[in-house]
Structure formats: C-alpha cells, structure tokens
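Here is one chain, start to finish.
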Amino acid sequence: MGDLGSDIIVYSPIASARLNYIVKLLFQGRACITNDIAAFVSFPGKKINYSSASLSGVDSQVIPHTLLFEKELKEQRITLTNWQGVPVIFETTGGTIPFDIFAASFYLITRYEEWLPHNKDYLGRYNYQQSIAYQHGFLEQPLVNSWVEKWVVQNNLPYAKPAFSFKPSYDIDIAYSYKYHSILRNIGGYFKDLLNANFSGITERVQVLAGIRKDPYDVYDWLNQLHEQYKLDPIYFFLVSAKRDAIHKNISPNSKGMGNLIQGIARKYKVGLHPSVQKILDGYEKKLRNEKIIIEELSAKSVTQSRQHYIQLRFPDTYQALLQAGIKEDYSMGYPTISGFRASYTGAFNWFHLLNNEETSLKIFPFCYMDATQIFHERNTPEVAKIKMDYYYQQFQQYGGCFMPIFHNQFLSEQANFGEWCSIYADFCLRKL
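Its structure:
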C-alpha cells in the first residue's frame, strides 16, 4: 500500500505496476493505492474506487478496462466516444466517469500504439498519421490534461497540475555556415553557388572566410543578449557526429571552432547531446557513449540530457540505449514533421518500459513546436507560425508543464530567407515576460 499521508487513496483489488505508474503521475505523487478494503474505507481523505465492486463513501468510481492489469503487449480495440465535449477511449459503464481515465491516460502517455507493429519512414521513425490523435483530430490538444482537470472538478478531488515554465531549446545541427568547415566543403559550396548564379552567396562566403563579415549562423551572441534581457535559461543540444553526410552537416567536433563554441555556451547554460542518426541499431549504444564523451570533454561538464537528431525516436530501442549510456533526461517526445502533443500530455514523466512492465528513471520532456516543422513540413508563414507558437504556449500555461519550443541557429539568422523568423522569436520572448 502507498503512503497514507497522501490526499487521495485508490482502491484496486489487483496490484498493478501500470496502475501505480499512472496514478502517481496524474496526481503528482499525491495519491496512494491499496487492495485493503478496510484501509480504503477508513482513509480520511478522498477515495477513488478502481473496481467494479460497490463500495460506500467513495468520491469517484472508475470501472477498469483490462489494460492496466495486463502484463503483455497486444493490440487494443480503440473506439472513441465523447465526454464533456472531448473525445475519450476505453469507455466503461457503471462508474462516476464513463471511461477508464487511468487506462486511457496510460495508453497515450506510454505511446502504447508505437510499440505495436507499424509502418516506418526512411529513418525508422513512426509516422504520426498512424496515431489515433491525428486520425481523430486531437493531436493539438493535451487530452490527458483535459480529462484529468474535468474529472477532478466534477468529483471535487484535490489536484495540483504540473508547474508551468518556459525554457527555450536549440538544436545546433550546423554551428556555422562557412567557418571551420573543410576546404573541400567550402570549395564545393562555392562552385554550387556559381552554377546556381547565387552571387550573393559567393560574396557572403568569401567575406566570412576572409574575416570581414560574421558567419550568418553565428547568432550566439544575439541569443545570449536575449537570454540575459528576458532572464531565460535555455538548453543547447549539440550534434557532435564524426561522420559527414546529407543529414550530418555540422563542423567536426575536433575543430577549434566547435570546442570554443561548446565551452563558451557551457559556461553559462546547460548543454545536451544531439545523438547522430543511426539506421542500423547494432552499435547504437556504443555510438551514444562515444558522442557523450566527446561533448563532456568539450564542455568540461557531465552531460545527462539529450534530444534525438531528426527526432529519431524508436521504442524501446532509443530510450533503452539512452539509459544504458547514462542519459537521465530526453527531450524528443514530439513529432518531427507536424506540431502537436505526441503523448497527449504537457507534463514531464518517467518513461515506462512496456515490455519490462516497469517505470524507469529516464525523464521525458515533451515538445510540441519546432521551427523546422513550421518552415519545411507545415510550410507556414512566419505570421501563422507565430500564432501557433502562442497557442501552444497558452496550452502549457493552462495545463502546466515546461513549454520548450525547438529552434535552430541557422533559422534565427538574418539571411534573406529567415530574417522574419528571428524577429518573431525575439518578439515572442518580449511578450512572455
């Protein structure tokens, strides 16, 4: 049985690691669970009956679906119904709420559907179009938060939503456009610009390499001024892959430029690992460890945070490898090609390993907005992207959690294609003071 110093007690006739996990998460540690009816009845606080039995003096009864009492992973029958104007799954009858809110929340937060067989893209990633959130139109809603808040109000249950905060984050995929890149890359870029008659690009490259103009991707001083002015505490994720290809374009981690950049940022802010993409899983953990060592040596700090490059998140392989490599927090819970709530929840949560049927120590911080998604996939104008960022910020304000949009230094530059984007970001920071 849990701590009877809690505000809420949940009765369940069957012990369940899944139920323990989701009750602890949804009530932020303020609820305990028991299978002792006498202890349940005598409890002085609020009582939730998670069974089909009829018990007196309860504040709410949730009729269980089978999901939380199962230990295996299997296809679930998903049918959507409506409750208080929002979609729900795992409908039940006879309780004070017409669906199993614990099982439904567990299904969405653990990304249960992503553990089942599904189609993958060229990087082995889950396609958001297969998710029930996208198919049923609630991807832009933190549905779990909405369920819980409606339920606790209806049943007068004590509830403390996750603390709200705003924390900018930056993925440094290409630290500099021209500086510190190899001679061959700059020569190749020069001739590519020449073939495309991009004379402004040629001029820019020559001036940067001659030291008479600042590299356009070097926005770090500007960002630092922004952070100091608005008292922001960002986190930077660095790609330190040793290989160079179409999706790994950063300067070498062995270059003086990368070393100086990471050292300078690490003196003021948190730095995290941006693990390189690996299409074949063999050796993934070893590569993670190697890249973690590189960034720790460059930053002179222990690095325990990560966000996957290209959001290459695969269950359970990615998170298993992160745990084994010593990563404690991951910031990849979102989709790379569409905005929205991948886990239908705004708060941070520990990863639940469905195959092992246990909660792990890896803490997951969801994101729902990324600049690259707005530019290349949703193809929004800066004005529309600004409206969307405000919307997601408001969702986190309402429901709690850390609003952590993703930005890239190259899209915050003042180059012709992206000048408006840095202005929008600066304006957003000003208005959120």
